[in-house]
Amino acid sequence: MNEPAVAVNEHANRRSGGRLGRKAIRGAPVASFPTLVRQIPAYQMVPDEAVELIHQESLLILEEVGCEFRDDEAIALWKAAGADVSETRVRIDRALLMELVSKVPPEFTLNARNPERTVRVGGKNSIFVPMYGAPYVRDLDNNRRYGSLADLSNFHKLAYMAPALHSSSSVICEPMEIAVPKRHLHIIHSALKHSDKPFMGIVTSKERAEDTMAMAGIVFGEEFVRDNPVLVSITNCNSPLVWDATMLDAMKVYARSNQPLILAPFALCGASTSASAVGAVAQVNAEALAGVAFTQLLRPGSPQIYGQFMVTVDMKTGAPMGGTPEAAQMMYLMGALARKYRLPWRTSGFHVGSKLNDAQAGYEANMLMHAAILAGANYIWHSAGWLEAGLTCGYSKFATDCEQLIGWYKYAGGLPFDDFKEAMAAIREVGPQGHFLGTQHTLEHFESAFFMPTIMDFNSYEQWKAEGAKDHDTRGREKARNMLADYEEPKLDEGIAEGLKDLIARREEKLPDSVS
Amino acid sequence: MSDDEIILSELSDDELVQQMHDDLYDGLKEEIEEGTQILLERGWVPYKVLTEALVEGMRIVGEDFRDGILFVPEVLLSANAMKAGMFILRPLLAATGAPKQGKMVIGTVKGDIHDIGKNLVGMMMEGAGFDVIDLGINNAVEKYLDAIEQHQPDIIGMSALLTTTMPYMKVVIDTMKEKGIRDDYVVLVGGAPLNEEFGKAVGADAYCRDAAVAVETAKDFMKRKHNVRT
Question: Per the database record, which ranges form the B12-binding N-terminal domain (chain B) (predicted)?
């Protein structure tokens, strides 16, 4: 009889090593989540006819008004492609535009230096990426001050440790103490050293983009980075309707190496677009499509990300807002357009206007991320740290966002039915009265069944009070502090580490100490 | 795995007690029963088995529950294993006149049929070695008085989830006062809408905010009681 043997075996395996065993399991860092493969439908907020109407208006904008491309080489490329060019104004007819747009692959693989962190972008595949570009930090002592390289390294460490973040971004905060001409070297070095997730490129000049590619070449191999995506870079159209020389230079460097760009107008709706949510989308769509099309003149078939950054302006002051209903509605429209064009698309998730990690931040973040998720975005950026319309990266906000992302990852991952039968059996086991806390089904599933946040507090009032009656902002800072104390640097080949240092030293010798 | 090779009867006393702490932690009922029997066969007095193997093991469980390392379903499993060990020891402890951990009568008060919290407390108390008499739900004062008379507990526990039923705790305590028996027992109260002030106002000895606190509070009162006696 086999049965007793099996039983004995199961018996033995039930031992999990008591306290030490459990502590080891519970204390172990959570492994990074793979690409989020969406299992819920994308929500379309308007009928197909409305999407088509906006699309037609965008085409008319590019045919009748046109878009500026302020770079000689770009103009030459457009002329050669058959666009109507007058000085730097390019009018693109719909056939040419849509032919170029159709060359972009609907999905691509973004390689990480650790292959386990490699992700997929486009279609049902989505990734969460931390913020970018903050001059200020709100630090671990709750002071607002300029960011430093130490802060940037900390944020890269946190990004590495956060299971639901799929990228380390690059300039999460600005290392303000480093001279601008040399800064990019240290930003990229920090991202590569402190994390093994995909990262983002520098776009502030052609030279800096080339340095970024050289550093990527050291890590991934020069040959490899000529054709395989290893980093994503942001290029913003200056709304209304201007692609400037700096952005076009960055596009040339990256697109020619098959490195994806995000073609995203930075639109302050009401100021750099008309004061209409649908009007703003028609314009931003035209701007983004013009950018996407241009990349296909540089390298046909190169992977790109269509996108937008659209917030409304506060008409009382002219300042950008964050989590407003219109910002959410515009995401749904952009998502519908992206699906129409079969393009991977970017939006942002937690880009709030609040100064603090407070109730306003929470409401704004939820308004935006809910829309980003339901609108089916693929590259969900500014998903950690963002405060004050991007001026500040907060440690508490960063830790909070990372925890919330675990919840959103689960939400978008859909409802599992695989243990449905066991759950029904548990009802029969318990019957009326009684409770489910001790059933076999509960014991097997309690750890994964429900979201288990640690910064959010659900203790009894007395327990919360006994622990110091801390508000969410304080708990977020404590979490960030604890995470940093537990950080262990991912392995980086010694030769690669040396190679990066050498390159930085060589470049720093040549680069000036000021921007003059 | 090396765990496959653990044969409890081949372990030294120290190793066995350590292993029982682990097995309690892992909620392994049969292993705890076996370990308890082995220690008794080796001539351990029941009280020593109880305190060194079981109660100490559950102390560790309680600590990690408090610190968020163990979760409710796991602690219930541990408590269940502890209860199995206690089932073997209880008659032997009584026969040898060993000091008692304590006895508790617990129930949800009249008008209230909510009992998940009360059940949790009951199981955790059993897990800590207490005898628990569970009166269930919707208990009128007579039920408590009958149970007190019949079981002679050390502790009376009352629970309520509703703001409309929680004042009934005062009815029970006032009746105990009228009968002149209030001070013979420790009265612990709990439930979501209660707080410390309410516990004091109705004349309870303590309000317990959750099951872990209830066990700690009960142990504390038992210690004081024993100090008075000795």
Answer: 7-101
